[in-house]
Amino acid sequence: MNNLQSLQFYYPEILLTFVILASILYDLFLDKLKSYKVGFVLIAGLIVVAISIFLQDDSVTSLFTDSVAKDPYSQFFKILIIATTILVSIVSLKNKELEIYRKGEYFTLLGIITFGLFLMVSAIDLIMLYLSIEIVSIISFVLAGYLKQNTRSNEAALKYVVYGGFSSGVMLFGLSYIFGLTGSTNYFQIQKALASLPVEANTAVIISIILVLAGFGYKISAVPFHFWTPDVYEGSPTTITAFLSVAPKAGAFAMMIRFFNQVFANGGAMNGLEEISLAYFPWAEILSVLAIITMTIGNIVAIQQNSIKRMLAYSSVAHAGYMLLAMPVMSGDSTYAIMIYLVMYLFMNLGAFFTVVLVKNKTGGETFKDFEGLGWEMPLVGALMTLFMVSLTGLPPTAGFVGKFYIFASLIQGGEAFYYLVFIGGINSVISLYYYLRVVKVMYFSGRKIEVLKSPGVVMSIMLLVTGIPSLILGIYWVPLAEWVQNSLVFFIQTI
Amino acid sequence: MENILSLLIWLPIVGMGVIAFVPRDKNDLIRIIAAITTGLQFILTIVLWSDFDKSTGTMQFIERLEWIPSLNIAYILGVDGLSLPMVILTGLLFFIGVFVSWSIEKAVKGYYALFLLLNAGVMGVFLSLDFFLFYVFWEVMLLPMYFLIGMWGGPQREYAAIKFFLYTLFGSVLMLVGILGLYFTCGKTFDILELQRVAPTALYGVLWWGVSAIKIIWVLLFIGFAIKVPVFPFHTWLPLAHVEAPTAISVLLAGILLKLGVYGILRVNYGLMPDGVYWFSGALAFLGLINVIWGGLCALAQTDLKKLVAYSSVNHMGYSLIGMAAVIAAGESNGYNLKAAQAGLGGAVFQMFNHGTISAMLFILVGVIYDRAHHREIEGFGGLASQMPVYTAITALAFFAGLGLPGLSGFISEAMCFIGAFPVFKGIVIASTIGILLNAAYFLWAFQRVFFGKLNEKYVDISEINKRELFTVVPLLVITLFFGIYPAPYLDIISKTMDVIINHVVTLSTLASM
Questions:
Q1: B489 within domain boundaries
Q2: What is the extent of the structural domain holding B505?
Q3: What ranges do the domains of chain A cover?
Q4: Domain count, chain B
């Protein structure tokens, strides 16, 4: 479809662009103290965009001369991402860390990063893939360093830039291999060309897989590309940490699934929801190893943390590992499992970070010490944080369990070759229990028992409930979600 | 009543919801609500018993609801002779537990809310017939238990709580893998009754990495359940958790939660993989022997009265394991000795119930003395018989029940286990008589040191057991005495179901399929 025709299918993104422009313009008329009002514009605008995505039909097509796909799959991820942005924006209004700064740009940048993520989840062209990753990365650098008077925040931004620059360079190098081997930047043409490559070219393909994985690994913070994660997560404003731990991860997984299915496999998972071919590329093994070390290192290092924010950073590394577990199977079921997991992860992880925001607002710190006695001071917050921790561990009847259940089920269904991954994943859940329960322990067991109750505030209470209720309910009844994900498992496929 | 089983599970949840809305300083009101909830539940279990048809071994009162159709998960409940006694015991012990914990003053609201949640979880495990539902309830028990030990326990409570949680979760994870393995090899269903029909043939000849899938799944599920029982060497969480937990929680832990392990093995391992029973029975009996001897030796070495009782649980569950292994007596290779199989399995299930009442009694009695003396060192007492005659008499009976004195219920079930196992595992049965000796030794020795001899000067004014405490112990004592003299009512309930299990194991298993 040519560019002009494409616009009629592209109205959510066009709307989003107007929202971003409106934010920028509105910011011009506000002084520093009132600049938080930009947030209202952004939130209202994003809600409109979300509705427009919902209203889009299920048609499957490619836009802008085959660079962007419009399919239910990308719509699903767009909803996830925009939900994250809305939730994070609302909490940002209450985040005391941001109080002394001008907030106009902050919200505008959140809008732009959302746009970048929209491109990420729908890219079907190497150029678009790279551009969208860069849009997201560069905005993330700025947002990570938003607390410009805070040295940790500056450090975070700088580290992020260095690691980000390096890994996207490596990825670009890998992409150039692919282009060199196949002579095209279009996923579908690459796939066709790869299938007819001579066997001698395998080494080059494997090298390019590994190099490209470096880029994806960086975005989802998989070990060994995770080194930026703890420092960036710790230094960034907590709301941005919450955002970074969910939205770019979701975007990167969406992109990765599409890329691997469509470029290195025959797209079987997308067509008939069966297994893939092109088995002579060992990318299933590569992904398995990546998943194992990611979750194991994430979990083991998380045990030793004293800062809850840093602990959650490592925990998010571990969760990337759980999701990666399902990648090597590369069946429709495994993609489905990752999509379900991401929905569950969105609620429980955002909830946990929102609690950190709340505690930091009250005490100014984010270590385990600052959480002491929280369960007695604010019973609702304590109970919800317990729920988030239990859900992140993956105990029934919470959302996290359902996510893990689908992941493990897809592995068992994938065949004998993947059984050992279930064991390793299971043992990792046990390890993770230790540090998640440490939060519960300090909230309830140790620390002062205060008779005077404190109020978490209306907005924060609502936000915690908005993330907390789904974390529980989706663990008990998730049929509507399962159906939605099933309906979203439709990809744009071009036969060449 | 139509949905009596659902009512049993959801009643405590309702009670918990009510407690959530009671102001946190109205302690007595909260206790009364908890007592009413558990009391109603106990009455319901009695109603269930009276409506129960003893002439059949199949599932009764079945309830079935769609839950997650895409995964074939359903909400299925049912009760048979295996679960009914456990359900009644659950109702009774939770009701008693409310009164045992009456003296707790710390965060009463949270305590009883978690107590009722635990109640719902336990009931759910005994009643659910869908494997997914079973697993959910199984895990629902963990968090309240963690809090109950970690918040209201003794000095080492945090360590004990996390150790308990980590151990059990490890077992649960293996169990989940086993469940998924069954699900995908047996036509994607979690329905336990359906799996009982399908699994023995569906698993026939399935190999994973060259090993029979039955063996792998058997071991995975067994470890998950064995940690709860606890079977040596997975028992190390138990003494710690028991000692640190508040009295009522120790009572429930020993009285009911340990039984979940045995129940799980009989319901799932025996029901779904009869081939595995043959393959594993030798190991099972041997593990039972180790439990008996190891538990006895450890109990003998304890200086802490509560720890002694805790190790006695390890010892007593060993008898149950030996009895369970005796099922194979009914098989071809053992000359179709149906009587031995019936005695062994019946004994194992009866031992489960008896240990539930006896150990609950023992923990309550230890709690009574601890509340007065604030320590549990056996050597720190002495001559209490002269100061607390009633307490001494009751404790004597409880200890005698624990050591299996004829005329008390423990004797009958232990004897049944041995009688059943003797034709098949002669060596193990003979060796485990050492355990009986140890069993008598540690109870009698402890009794002597606490109650006889010179009165410790510190306890001249120690008060006699009070009415509330008597109210919690006497029902259990009556049950122990009654079943010791006349066990027929109990055996009537279970016998048909035991026959079904034995028949299932014997007819569906063929050694060749391994």
A1: yes
A2: 285-514
A3: 8-488
A4: 1
Place of tokens 């005659």: B389
Residue in B508, B512, B513, B506 with CA at minimum distance from that of residue B334: B506
For the segment B109-158, what is each residue's pLDDT rounded down to a tens digit? 889 999 999 999 999 999 999 999 999 999 999 999 999 998 888 888 88
Q: For chain B, what's the residue count?
A: 514
Torsion over CA of A361, A432, A473 and B23, rounded to 10 degrees?
A: -60
| Sequence-distant (≥ 6) Cβ neighbours of residue B346 within 8 angstroms | B323, B416, B420, B491, B494, B495, B498
Has residue B476 been placed in a domain?
A: yes
Q: How far apart are the first and last CA of chain B?
A: 44
Q: Nearest 5°: phi and psi at B76?
A: -120, 130
Please report the ipTM that was assigned to this predicted complex. 0.91
Query: Which tokens go with A343?
Result: 């929905």
Say whether B136 and A479 touch across the interface (CB within 8 A).
Answer: no
Phi-psi region at A102: left, alpha or beta (left = phi > 0; alpha = psi -120 to 50): beta
**Residue B412, domain member (yes or no):** yes
- Using CB atoms and an 8 Å cut-off, which of residues 253-272 of chain B contact chain A? none
- Which structure tokens are listed for B7? 């009512």
CB B136 within 8 A of CB A397: yes
Q: Give residue-wise pLDDT tens across range A424-460.
A: 999 999 999 999 999 998 888 876 656 667 788 899 9
Q: Where are the alpha helices (DSSP H) in A264-331?
A: 268-271, 283-303, 308-326
- Cα–Cα dist B413/B430, whole Å: 17
DSSP A120-145: HHHB-BHHHHHHHHHHHHHHHHHHHT
Beta carbons of A409 and B169 less than 8 Å apart: no
Name the DSSP letter for residue B455: P
Judged by CB atoms closer than 8 Å, whether chains meet at B70 and A479 is answered as yes
Q: Nearest CA of chain B to the CA of A390: how many Å?
A: 9
